[in-house]
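Section: protein folds

Sequence with per-residue C-alpha cells
===
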Amino acid sequence: MAKASDRRTKPRPALSKGRVLRAAVELADEFGLESVSMRKLGQALRVEAMSLYKHVANRDAVLDGMVELVVGEIDWSAGSGSWRESLRQRALATHAVLMRHPWACMLIASRVNVGPAMLHYADATLGCMRRAGFSHALADHAWNAMDSYVYGFTLQRLNFPLRPSEYVSAAKSFLPQIPPTEFPHLHGLARQVIDGRHDGLHDLSFGLDLLLDGLERMAPAPRAAVRGIQ
C-alpha cells in the first residue's frame, strides 16, 4: 500500500501571467469569450480572483494577452517564396488558427492590438509588400482587404447553420420554395447540388486568389522592387 506521503497532491505550478492567459484561452475555447471573467479564471486556476491582479491589471489586459497568444500561434514566414505566395500562406495560416479559437476572430477585429506578437505580425506583412515594391498606402489597403476577407470567411464558416453533409437534404427541402418560374437561377443551383454536380462547399482559396490576382495586376514593375526599402 502506498504511503500517505506518496499520495500527496503535487504542488500546483506557481501563478504567472502566462499561466493566467493560457487558462483564459482554454476557458474561451471551451465555453466562449463570455466565460472569461476574473472570477471564473480564479476558479479554473484554483486561486482567489484577487490573486490574479498581481499578474494582469484587469479583464481588458487578459483579453489583450489572449490576442497575443493566438497571434503567436500563426506559423507564417514573410521571407519564404514570392510576395504572392507569402501572403497566401499568411491568410491560410491565420484562418487555421482562428478556426481553432472560434472566439478570437471578433476579438482581434474589434480591439486595438499593440502587443509584440501582433506588431511583428503586422510589420512582417507590411515588409513583405514593401520589399515587392508596393507603396505604404497600397500595402495598407491590400493588407486590410485580405484581413477583411479572411475574418469574414472565418466568421461565416464558424456560424453557417448547415454542415456540408446536410447540403443536399437542405437543397431538396428548399426546392419547393424556389420555383423555377420565379427563381430560375436559385432553382438551377439547388438542382446542381441535389444532382451532385456542385458540392456547394465554401472555399477560402477561391476568394483569396481573386484578391491576389487583383493585387498582382497592381504590383509595381520588377525594377521598382527594392530589397530593404524603407
Notes: The chain has three domains: 13-56, 74-160+211-230, 161-201. Residues 136-159 form the longest helix (24 residues). The mean pLDDT is 91.
